[in-house]
Specification:
By secondary structure, the chain is α/β, with parallel strands linked by helices. It is built from six helices and seven strands. Bound molecules: S-adenosylmethionine (SAM).
Length: 200
C-alpha cells in the first residue's frame, strides 16, 4: 500500500501537479468522461490546485475553471489551458454565492474534493464531511446546469446511505466511485451524479 502511494506521489511530481489527489479525478474522468472541451467547471476545495490544473488542460482554451478554497491558490498556466479564476472563499459564505452569481451564469460540472479538518473521531469527521457535501448540493442547486455533473468527495459512515438517497432524485444516475489512487483504508469515496435535474 505504501508503495502504491509512493507511486502516485512520484507520478504527480513528474507530471508537475502539486498533489497526488489529481489521480482521484483523472481515474474517474478516464472511465466516465464527464469533463469536456469548452465547459465551465466549478472546483470546490481546489487547493493546492491539481484538480483545477488537470481540468483546465482538458477543457481547452474555450473552457473556464472557477476554483475556490479557504486557502489562497495562485498557479499560472500556459495556454492552451482553460482560463482559471482562483478564489479564496469559505464555501459556506454568502459572499461566495454572491460573487459566483454576479460573474457566471452557471456551470456544466461541479467538482468537490473538500475535506474537513480531521479530528481523530471518525464519527465527527463523517458528520463534518456530510455537512460539506450537503453544502455542495445546495451550491449545485444554485449553479449546476440542467443535465450537469457533480463529482464530490465524501467520507463514508453510518449516515452515508441517507446522503446517497438525497442525491438520487437530483440526478439521472448516481454512482459511488473508489479510485485506485485513494487509500483502501481511507473512508473517502466519490459520488458521481450525472444528468442533474433542476427542481421545478
Ligand atoms: C484534499 S484538499 C483538495 C485538493 C485539490 N483537489 C487538489 O487536487 O489540489 C481539500 C481542500 O478543501 C478545502 N476546504 C475545506 N473546507 C472548505 C470550505 N468550507 N470552503 C472552502 N474550501 C474548503 C481545504 O482548505 C483543502 O484545501
Amino acid at each position: 500500500m505504501r508503495d502504491e502511494q509512493d507511486y502516485y506521489f512520484k507520478k504527480a511530481k513528474k507530471e508537475k501537479y502539486p498533489a497526488r489527489s489529481v489521480y482521484k479525478l483523472e481515474e474517474a474522468q478516464l472511465k466516465y468522461k464527464f469533463l469536456k472541451s469548452g465547459q465551465r467547471v466549478l472546483d470546490l476545495g481546489c487547493h493546492p490546485g491539481s484538480w483545477s490544473m488537470y481540468t483546465a488542460g482538458l477543457l481547452g482554451e474555450n473552457g473556464l475553471v472557477v476554483a475556490a478554497d479557504l486557502q489562497r491558490t495562485d498557479i499560472a498556466l500556459q495556454k492552451p489551458h482553460a482560463e482559471i479564476h482562483w478564489l479564496c472563499y469559505d464555501v459556506y459564505s454568502a459572499e461566495f454565492v454572491d460573487y459566483l452569481k454576479s460573474h457566471w451564469p452557471g456551470f456544466h460540472v461541479v467538482l468537490s474534493d473538500m475535506a474537513p479538518r480531521t479530528t481523530g473521531s471518525q464519527y465527527a469527521d463523517h458528520q463534518q464531511s456530510l455537512a460539506l457535501v450537503r453544502r455542495v448540493l445546495d451550491l449545485a442547486a444554485l449553479f449546476l446546469h440542467e443535465n450537469g455533473t457533480l463529482y464530490c468527495k465524501v467520507f463514508q459512515g453510518e449516515d452515508f446511505p441517507e446522503f446517497l438517497q438525497e442525491c438520487k432524485p437530483l440526478f439521472a444516475t448516481v454512482k459511488v466511485v473508489k479510485p485506485k489512487s485513494s487509500r483502501l483504508e481511507s473512508r473517502e469515496v466519490f459520488v458521481l451524479g450525472r444528468g442533474f435535474r433542476r427542481a421545478k
